[in-house]
Each structure stands twice: as C-alpha cells, then as structure tokens.
Amino acid sequence: MVSPAQSLRDQWKEPSDIFTVLLIIGGDIVQQALGAVSGGFLTPVAFSYGWVAYAVSALLSATGDGRLMPETPITNLRVINLKSGYCRWNRSWVLGRVFQDYEHWMPSAVRERLEEHPSQNSDEEKKVSGLLPGGRQPEVALCVAVYHWSTEGNSLARPGHDWVWWTGLLVSLIQIAISAVPFGIYGDWRVFLVTVSGTVLAYAAGALPGWRKEKWACRRGSGKDVALTLGNGTTHVVIVHGGHPDGLDLEDLAGAEVRHSGAATSNRRSISRMIESCNTTRFFITFLAILWLVLLITSQAIESHTWYLVGVGGLGMIQNLIVAGAPRFPEMLGISIELSESSQGTPSVFAEYKVMYTLMELELGYKGFGRALLAEFFPGKLRDWEENWWALTDNEERRVILDEKKRGLQR
Q1: Where would you find the membrane-spanning parts of this chain (predicted)?
Q2: Which of 68, 119, 162, 277 has the greatest count of CB atoms below 10 A from its CB?
C-alpha cells in the first residue's frame, strides 16, 4: 500500500488527470479573448485551459440564438442620435469595449484639457476659486470630445494587429516548442499531439465568419452623428461625427442585431452567405464541440510528462487573460476615429466646471449637438436665463450671454 507521503510525492512528480480538470474551467475568459481579436480569418487565441468549457457553452448558445460574441462589458452605455435625439441602450461588445478603454486611448489634447483649469480668464478664476473650500481649483464637470472617422488605411470593421494580437502567434509557437521536448527526448508524442490538435481547434473556432458578422453588425455610410455616454453624473461624452462614406452606423451597431441577407446574386456570394448563415455557424460550433470533447478524453491517456502539458495550458491561459483584459485602441477593434479640430485648428474638446456651460460651448461649436444632449443631462426644468439662451438663434448673442454668466458665475 502506498503511503500518503509517497502518494503526494507521486502526484507532484507526475500530476494525473489535472489537465483534464483544468480544461473545463475558464470558458468565459476564452470567449472574451476571442471577442477581442476576432473578425479576420486568423484569430490568434492560444490553446489553454477553458477551451472545452467554452466549446460546451458555445454549443448551448448554438441551440438558442447562435451568437458568438460576448455580452457588452458596459450595460448602461447610452448611444444618442444627435439629430433625432433618440437614445438607445448599447448591446454591442465593440462599443462597450471602446468606451470602457477610453481612459487608455484618450488623446493627449483631451487629457490636457481635463488636467488644466477649465476657467477662461483671471476674473472668472478668482470668482470660481472663492466659491470652493480653501480656494482650490474647480474640476471639470463634463468633458465632451468630438471625433470623426479616420481616412487613413482601411481599418473600419477590421481587427487591428497590435502587440495583443501578435501574442497569440508567439505563445502558440512557444507551446508547440514545449510540447515537442518530451517527443524529441523521450519519444513520447502524446503531449505534442494534444497541443497541436488543441491549437488547430482554437484557431478554427476563431476563424468562423460569424465573428465578423456579429462584431460589426451594422450598416455603413449613414453619416449619423452619435454620442456615447453613461448619462447624467458622469464625466465623459464621446461624439463620433459622421460624414465618412464608409463610416459605421453606430446607432445601428448598438442594437447588435445580426441581419441575414436575402437572395444572392452570384454563386460566389451565395457560398459566402451560406458560410456566414446562422445555421452553418451552429453546425460548425457543434462539430468543434464534439472534437473538443474527443480531445478531452484523449488527454486522459497522458500519464507521464504531464508537467509539459500543464505548462502549455498555463502559458495559454496567461495569454488568454492578457488578450481578454488588455486595453485597446479603437482602431484595433475596427472603430478607426480621430479627434476633430475646429476651424481655428484647436482640438474639439469642450470641458467646463459646470455641465450646462459645457453643453452650451458644444452647441456653439457644433449646432444641434448640445441641444440633443440637454435632455439627458438636464431632464428637469431649466433656469430662466438658460431657457432664454437655448431659445436664441444668434450665436454672437449667445456667446456674449454665456461669457457674462461665466464671469459672474450667476446661479
């Protein structure tokens, strides 16, 4: 009979069945990683723990709505059409991730505007400082930055290739190299077989055309001006100015509604649409899930050199975590935008110590934008002078009144 101490030593020397157990945890991380870098034919998400769990959960989804993309990371993000004023809740993972990472990709001009004093002149500065405890400087109450679609490159609705994307290929090569060690030294090819098979299945799952169709499920060239915000009480509003002939309809994208095309006009289009169809996606998800279960059963036969397999899976899990959580620039997610400039060449950033002043400055710079956001940030009754200001049509008169109010800080 083996003693308890000897049993523990044997387990740490050659851990048995641990890889089989680890394969069924962390499926949500795999889905988040796939969502971050998918959209092209090559989706480098490394083989790791959690792939079997993800395959089973994807199979469950396939029997329902057949969706691949994860849920949006920000459930309370509002998408406002600045022409109609219509507001809808965002369901798109891409838009949610772009806004979630805003602190990371925020242009330096916006960051500097937030850090500097929002007042405009010395008289105003003295007046505002006198109202705050200790004469401290006021902070920005609302910052609105206006962006437009970038014309450089062809990065709209296409995944970008940054360091996050390249880690997948690098880690996959390292994993195969690690698994080849027991094959080359001891002639044990089982670890190598499981690693290569898992890598092929992982890349096949990411290559499904349904990822691209769901990730950027929207029309193009609508020319809509759209604002992204968390609503009243938050600091940032991101406005994307339309006008680009291939610009994405972000209001449409927020609905995350996958549309299925009608009859094809050619054999090539017919084949393409058949591959992208919901039923075809369900079939491939089911087929891949079966193969993952076969791989899970196969891995149980590995009783020696298991530390190599554990190392392969652990390295892949680290890569999955990095891809799932690393902040990305919008162009890496297929939303290629740049900070706009005014006619004077200054960045289109509006940040004041009062929310109303920010919206008024925005309205003076972009007619209709401030008014469209007014109901979101001021759902109640306005002051008399504010109602009169918004009723005016002469921007010069508006400017005079706003400057006087800011200097006097009348409440």
Answers
A1: 163-185, 191-211, 283-302, 308-326
A2: 68
Q: Is there a contact between 203 and 40 (Cβ–Cβ < 8 Å)?
A: no
Task: Give per-residue pLDDT as tens, 241-250.
Answer: 988 888 899 9
Distance of CA 55 to the CA centre of its chain: 22
Global pTM reads: 0.86
How far is the CA of 256 from the CAs of 40, 69, 82, in angstroms? 18, 10, 20
pLDDT per residue as tens digits for the range 94-144 = 999 999 999 999 999 999 999 875 554 445 555 555 455 555 567 899 999
Give the range among 78-92, 128-142, 373-387, 394-408 with minimum mean pLDDT: 128-142
Q: Are 75 and 100 in contact (CB under 8 A)?
A: no
Segment 392-399 shows an average pLDDT of 94
Residue 263 has a pLDDT of: 45
CA distances from 345 to 226, 362, 399 (A): 22, 16, 19
For residues 3 and 403, the model is more confident at 403
Nearest Cα to Cα of residue 69 among 251, 219, 228, 258: 258
What span, in angstroms and rounded, lies between the C-alpha atoms of 286 and 201? 12
Residue 81, phi then psi, degrees to nearest 5: -75, 115
Phi, psi of 282, rounded to the nearest 5 degrees: -60, -40
Of the candidates 27, 326, 35, 311, the one whose C-alpha atom is nearest the C-alpha of residue 167 is 326
**Which residues have C-beta within 8 Å of that of residue 330, sequence separation ≥ 6?**
98, 105, 336, 337
Do residues 313 and 23 lie in contact, with contact meaning Cβ atoms separated by under 8 Å? yes
State how far the Cα of 51 lies from the Cα of 38, in Å rounded to an integer. 16
Measured distance CA(51)–CA(197) in Å, rounded: 12
Instruction: Name the 3-class secondary structure at 63.
Output: coil
Whether the CB-CB separation of 194 and 309 falls below 8 Å is answered with yes
pLDDT tens sequence across 56-101: 889 888 777 778 999 999 999 999 999 999 999 999 999 999 999 9
391/363 Cα distance (integer angstroms): 12
* pLDDT computed for residue 116 by the predictor: 79
